[in-house]
User: Which sequence fits this backbone?
């Protein structure tokens, strides 16, 4: 599981992936997606839009964090390679 | 009530002290090299300065009025954070490389270091931030009123019997300005990171987060029963409000997401483009690697700080029953529920948020003001020593100005806007930088014209559509302008420009400003070309990650004139102070080709120029730094020339040579023009003073006693200098110069070590001096050339000293030549004098000879019974020979032969005296001895005085009796050769040489002569005549020859002797006269 995770992260270690996330984030914040969640209803007792925004926000933070970890891991690897 | 005020004040003071302590600690840690700021967490927290009292109070306000869209202000930055790895990293890298001080500096540098662009950005930032500062003042002062329960109004201070009233917001503004000055404007170098400030800001970020979380937890879990409870209650109690708050744009029947997008867009831009964000994010960044942590930590911070905003807002609505005063729910909720301590914490949080923002913002803007508004004016002035003081105070002034402007905006707009709406005006202004910023980073063609026009149009639209309406709402501008448009033109209505309706204020403004901004940026960039300077900068900015050596080379330019690091330090000192200048140069020169005396290798110069520009840019901004350095370079007679490597070497040398060639040429003209050393020295010094702007030039010589004296002095205003006391303190250096034959120079007397030794010199106002030995290679020092300058420190570069030394060498050459010529002249005149003397002597001799000749009898007297002849063979120089005949009667003849010692006119004169005396005796009948005695007595005094003496043989012959009586005074013995006797006879009597002693007795003898006898008188010249072997003719020779020729007549005997002597001596000239007298008895 962990290996798979690292593998996925490593395969995503491209400069472009940041742009993809950036654009993805913007898309999530634009009309179609917002319209989906722009409803005055409760989900799990929490307003849907509020839940969408906070959860999406939290997830995005976690994603960045994981990528940061991965890239740091990779940097360390390349550093070690360089040392050798 | 007073109690509450004082407790609030006390807590504020304690809190302030705490912040100062933290700042001080951070600064202390930095000084000791263990920075606590250089840390990704602190960096991320410092970015939290984004959350101001707007976030703290205004978010809840917005949440309670328009609902969830407040979140967009924080979602935007979170989205932007995704881009940081490439966007922010690039900006930071560029900024560090160019020592960028602010966003204005960044844009100005990118677009060809344009000072206009920098000024424009500064003005926009300055005006644009005005509502934002006002927002902070409003929030904090309102929260203070709420907490203390005081009615809005001024606080009364009772002091010294009089009552002063100060509005609380003004007081707050002044306190915050003071904070900012203390944290941000103690020193001038603004590209240097403010560790104390960042520590304080980071701490404040923690405080406001903790405070808001505390209030949130208190409201959510204290007043209510968690999130779900709150949401549920609102839905039940006020479903309409619920749906309004938890959806976008529900107030309009047709939901569109324009305002959502606007908020998102504005906040995405603002998080990087607001001057304070740019400052903490870029300028204060200590390590690029911190970005990666900040990328998730900063959004996480925003997430946390906003987590309880919605619950608090709903809690406020539920508690107060409405959303009026929602901006201060954070404070009023705990207060209303009686939890004063939580309210106080909330107040502190709000204060923290406001203080952090105002501090960073005002520092950032005042840096921009200083660098882009004040500096361009200042750089046109001549640098003065008080410039650093002026600059730092201008920066402080800028801070106060920024804060006070915010205050006045607050007074004007007052309560007509909510906190968030005020903040959004500023966001909108900052967004105007976005096209130029992004274009500058990624678009090669983006040019200065585009950037300036884009930003300018965007700014004007912002001014018209956003800022103007706020004024009209506060009654500053007639309401009619807003409702009917200016001059009744509805198309120009600020809020519905060109008839665009159905948009909120921000979206409307954003649309039009961005339209004008982006389009003019693109159009101008495409239509107009970049100049060289711009292209240069484009490469540096866009190629920041791929810059290789090849690109570097193309920008390598040469200085046409050498500089020293001292010169640069002096320059930099004028703006950042000497200590800073030295420190930065020290850091720079580590491991570089810069020698101790500050001269810089040619290859180092372009880099050094760049470094100076960069260092100055840290204080005064890039555009101003460039102007300063270029001004400076053109002042010292050089500027960078865009000549590429291969040519520049030649060119540089040519330029250098051309200059020194001129001076050398002039110098040699001066030297060859005259032989007057004083004129040469004076003219040469005058040339140096004129050409190199020395204030005093001296030539100092050491005399034999070892003291120094001034041989020549030139300079402007010499009289103003207290000469005799002043230059003497340079004597130790002069000794040194004499000793080691090297030039000694001090490039900046103002430095401590120099002042210690040359106090008077520096007291006279001199700041640099040099002592250059005047000497020829391999010879001792002749004199010292001393040069003093009052205006230029660091004047004496290696090359310049070389030039001066070579001039000194030329001068030495001239001095030597003059001295040689003088010596030759002296020698010649001596020779001439000697020749003259010789000539005079020769002439003397000739005269003497003539006199002497004239004394000798022309012919022998004829007297019966004897054949008599006399002759004198003259030597090369005059002798003192004398012979004479005196006929006493018909029968008696006196024959005298004498030799006066010495060969001079004196001898001749003595001889004439002798002759006169003898002639006077002519008629007396006295014996030879008595004649000699008389002669001796009469001549003794004269002879002794003239140090002369005379040998003389005196004979008297009576032809009747045939008796020869004679007396000798030390003369060569005459020879008597008788016919019937083979042996010759020497006639001799006793007697001393004449003139040796007085009263000498002269013996007298007589001899009877018979026919055929020959008497031969001669002088020592005959016997002492030498042949080539050095053999003398001697008396023997005389005897022998006399025997041979005794049969001849007297004359013939003389001829024969003459021939014999001639043969004997060969070609050799006679050393002495030879006089001979022959008497033959017939």
Assistant:
């Amino acid at each position: 599981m962990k290996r798979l995770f690292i593998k996925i992260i490593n395969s995503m270690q491209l400069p472009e992936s940041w742009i993809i996330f950036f654009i993805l984030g913007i898309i999530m914040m634009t009309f179609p997606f917002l319209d989906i969640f722009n409803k005055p209803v409760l989900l799990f007792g929490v307003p849907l839009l509020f839940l969408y925004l906070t959860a999406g926000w939290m997830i995005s933070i976690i994603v960045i964090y994981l990528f940061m970890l991965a890239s740091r891991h990779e940097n360390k690897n390349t550093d070690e390679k360089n040392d050798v | 009530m007073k109690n509450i005020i004082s407790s609030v004040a006390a807590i504020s003071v304690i809190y302030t002290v705490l912040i100062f302590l933290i700042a001080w600690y951070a600064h202390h840690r930095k000084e000791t090299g263990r920075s606590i700021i250089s840390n990704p967490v602190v960096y991320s927290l410092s970015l939290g300065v984004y959350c101001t009292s707007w976030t703290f109070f205004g978010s809840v306000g917005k949440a309670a009025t328009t609902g969830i869209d407040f979140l967009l202000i924080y979602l935007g930055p979170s989205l932007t954070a995704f881009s940081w790895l490439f966007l922010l990293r690039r900006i930071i890298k560029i900024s560090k490389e160019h020592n960028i001080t602010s966003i204005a500096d960044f844009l100005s540098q990118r677009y060809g270091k344009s000072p206009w662009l920098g000024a424009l950005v500064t003005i926009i930032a300055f005006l644009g931030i005005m509502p934002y500062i006002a927002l902070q003042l409003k929030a904090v002062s309102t929260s203070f009123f709420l907490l203390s329960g005081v009615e809005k109004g001024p606080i009364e201070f009772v002091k010294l019997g009089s009552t002063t009233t100060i509005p609380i917001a003004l007081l707050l503004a002044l306190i915050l300005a003071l904070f900012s000055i203390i944290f941000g404007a103690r020193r001038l170098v603004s590209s240097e990171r403010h560790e104390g400030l960042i520590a304080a800001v980071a701490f404040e970020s923690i405080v406001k987060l903790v405070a808001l979380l505390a209030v949130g937890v208190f409201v959510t879990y204290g007043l209510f029963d968690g999130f779900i409870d709150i949401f549920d209650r609102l839905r039940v109690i006020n479903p309409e409000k619920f749906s309004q708050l938890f959806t976008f744009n529900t107030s309009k029947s047709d939901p569109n997401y324009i305002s959502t997008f606007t908020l998102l867009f504005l906040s995405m831009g603002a998080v990087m483009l607001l001057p304070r964000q740019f400052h903490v994010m870029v300028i204060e960044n200590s390590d690029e690697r911190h970005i990666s942590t900040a990328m998730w930590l900063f959004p996480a911070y925003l997430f946390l700080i906003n987590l309880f905003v919605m619950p608090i807002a709903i809690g406020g609505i539920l508690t107060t029953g409405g959303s009026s005063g929602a901006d201060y729910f954070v404070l009023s909720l705990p207060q209303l529920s009686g939890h004063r301590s939580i309210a106080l914490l909330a107040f502190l949080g709000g204060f923290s948020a406001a203080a952090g923002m105002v501090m960073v913002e005002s520092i950032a803007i005042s840096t921009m003001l200083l660098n882009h508004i004040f500096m361009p004016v200042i750089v046109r002035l001549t640098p003065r020593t008080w410039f650093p003081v002026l600059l730092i105070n201008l920066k402080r002034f800028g801070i106060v100005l920024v804060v006070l402007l915010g205050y006045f905006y607050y007074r004007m707009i007052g309560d007509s806007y909510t906190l968030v709406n005020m903040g959004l005006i500023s966001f909108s202004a900052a967004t105007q930088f976005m096209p130029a910023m992004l274009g500058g980073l990624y678009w090669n063609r983006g040019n200065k014209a585009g950037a300036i026009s884009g930003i300018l149009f965007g700014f004007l639209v912002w001014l018209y559509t956003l800022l103007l309406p706020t004024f009209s709402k506060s009654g500053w501008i007639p309401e009619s302008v807003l409702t009917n448009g200016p001059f009744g033109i509805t198309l120009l209505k600020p809020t519905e420009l060109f008839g665009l309706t159905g948009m909120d204020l921000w979206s409307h403004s954003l649309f039009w400003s961005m339209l004008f901004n982006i389009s003019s940026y693109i159009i101008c960039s495409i239509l107009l070309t970049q100049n060289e300077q711009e292209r240069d900068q484009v490469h540096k900015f866009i190629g920041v990650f791929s810059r290789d050596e090849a690109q570097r080379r193309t920008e390598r330019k040469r200085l046409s004139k050498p500089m020293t690091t001292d010169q640069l330090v002096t320059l930099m000192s004028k703006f950042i102070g000497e200590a800073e200048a030295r420190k930065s140069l020290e850091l720079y020169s580590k491991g570089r080709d810069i020698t101790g005396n500050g001269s810089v290798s040619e290859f180092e110069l372009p880099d050094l120029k760049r470094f100076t520009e960069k260092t100055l840019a840290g204080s005064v901004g890039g555009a101003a730094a460039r102007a300063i350095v270029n001004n400076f370079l053109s002042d010292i007679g050089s500027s960078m020339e865009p000549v590429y490597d291969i040519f520049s070497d030649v060119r540089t040398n040519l330029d250098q040579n051309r200059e020194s060639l001129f001076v050398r040429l002039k110098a040699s003209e001066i030297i060859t023009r005259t032989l007057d050393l004083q004129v040469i020295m004076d003219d040469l010094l005058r040339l140096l003073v004129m050409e190199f702007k020395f204030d005093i030039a001296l030539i100092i010589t050491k005399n034999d006693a070892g003291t120094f004296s001034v041989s020549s002095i030139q300079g402007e205003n010499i009289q103003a200098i207290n000469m005799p006391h002043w230059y003497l303190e340079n004597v130790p250096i002069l000794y040194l110069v004499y000793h080691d034959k090297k030039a000694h120079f001090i490039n900046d007397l103002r430095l401590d070590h120099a002042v210690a030794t040359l106090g008077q010199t520096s007291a006279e106002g001199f700041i640099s001096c040099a002592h250059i030995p005047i000497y020829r290679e391999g010879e001792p020092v002749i004199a010292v050339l001393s040069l003093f300058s009052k205006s230029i420190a660091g004047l004496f570069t290696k090359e310049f000293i070389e030039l001066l030394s070579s001039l000194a060498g030329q001068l030495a050459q001239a001095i030597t030549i003059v001295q040689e010529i003088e010596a030759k002249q002296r020698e010649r005149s001596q020779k001439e004098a000697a020749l003259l003397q010789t000539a005079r002597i020769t002439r003397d001799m000739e005269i003497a000879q003539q006199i002497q000749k004239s004394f000798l009898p022309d012919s022998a007297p004829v007297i019966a019974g004897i054949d008599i002849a006399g002759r004198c063979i003259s030597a090369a120089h005059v002798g003192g020979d004398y012979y004479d005949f005196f006929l006493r009667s018909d029968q008696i003849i006196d024959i005298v032969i004498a030799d006066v010692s010495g060969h001079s006119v004196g001898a001749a004169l003595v001889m004439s005296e002798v002759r006169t005396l003898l002639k006077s005796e002519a008629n007396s009948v006295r014996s030879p001895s008595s004649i000699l005695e008389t002669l001796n007595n009469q001549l003794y005094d004269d002879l002794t005085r003239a140090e002369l003496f005379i040998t003389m043989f005196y004979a008297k012959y009576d032809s009747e009796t045939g008796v020869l009586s004679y007396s000798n005074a030390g003369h060569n013995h005459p020879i008597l050769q008788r016919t019937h006797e083979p042996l010759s006879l020497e006639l001799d009597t006793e007697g001393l040489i004449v003139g040796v002693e007085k009263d000498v007795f002269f013996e007298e003898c007589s001899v009877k002569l018979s026919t055929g006898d020959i008497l031969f008188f001669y002088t020592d010249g005959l016997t002492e005549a030498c042949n080539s072997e050095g053999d003398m003719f001697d008396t023997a020779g005389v005897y022998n020859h006399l025997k041979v020729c005794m049969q001849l007549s007297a004359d013939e005997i003389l001829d024969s002797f003459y021939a014999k002597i001639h043969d004997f001596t060969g070609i050799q000239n006679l050393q002495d006269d030879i006089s001979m007298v022959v008497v033959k008895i017939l």
Remarks:
- Confidence is low (pLDDT under 50) at residues 80-84 of chain A.
- The beta strands of chain A are 42-43, 46-47.
- The interface with chain B takes residues 15, 18-19, 21-22, 25-26, 29-31, 34-35, 38-40, 42, 44-50, 53-54, 57-58, 60-62, 64-65, 68, 71-72 of chain A (CB under 8 Å).
